[in-house]
Amino acid sequence: MRDVEDRLRAGGLRVTKPRLAVWEELVERPHADVEELATGVRRRIGAVSTQAIYDVVHALTDAGLLRRVEPAGSPARFEIETGDNHHHLVCRACAAIVDVPCAIGTAPCLEARSDEGYAIDEAEVTYWGLCASCRTTPPG
Question: Which pTM was predicted?
Fold first, then answer.
């Protein structure tokens, strides 16, 4: 927990119970959305508003401590894995998200064939399909 407190302070943030609880939830449930985080945080520390959870994830994301992942058709999700150039697998049926290493291994995916004058600082790769569980589950 001390490491998380140090990260918060290094990011210019105060250490608060809601921030620590959100972090703990994301350690246990990577790629959680705000509603999932709010439920878990309430279990941990009691009453906290959904708006407070939005405030926490925005502050942590702005400080570079969280990564926001937004698969099409899904609410924004958050993870503590930042700056490691990983990609995501997303199940079309159950919306499960799994981290996978960069297909190339390093950050060349940041080098577009034509950058059109942009200063590219991030690339997102999302693979879509059906997870193993959904592939073996007969249609309902």
Answer: 0.84
